[in-house]
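Lab channel / #folding
Pinned by the channel admin:
"Please post every new chain as: sequence first, then the structure tokens as a reply. Keep commentary short and put observations after the output so the thread stays searchable."

First post following the new format, from NK:
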Amino acid sequence: MEWGLVLAITGGAIGVILAGIGSSIGIGLAGSASNGVMSEDPEKFAPLLILSALPGTQGIYGFLIGIILILKLGMLAGKIPSISFSQGLSIFFSCLPVGVLGLISAIHQGKVCTSGVYMVAKQPKDFVKPMVMAVFVEFYAVLGLLTSLLLLQGIKL
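Reply from TO:
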């Protein structure tokens, strides 16, 4: 068994899984609040849909890094290169920023979006304000994505 490859694949999987967990929790928080508000006022569906979907982007970032890793390893072409232990470890740690920041930021973005849902329930015209607040949290997930992407690109196989 080639431990470098195992480490590389494990790192990619952890990045995808952590970001996905964060997104599912964040969407769950905002979606639950949205359903409660829509039970009273179904006309607010469009803005609440956007607020509920925002925490899902971190899962997309994790998935993107997973796809980039699969392509880098040549897994779709069936030509997986021999990967040293240090290369595998480098890939493993390169995938952590998107996973860890995705996990944490998606949960917190879900909380911000949940508050935004309650704001839209009382002041529908102020829909943009909670979106802006949610984007501030998103910024750190984007930094995690970029860090993982740049680190992966710097590893020679």
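NK: Residues 3-153 form a domain with the Four Helix Bundle (Hemerythrin (Met), subunit A) fold (CATH 1.20.120.610).
TO: also worth noting, The mean pLDDT is 95.
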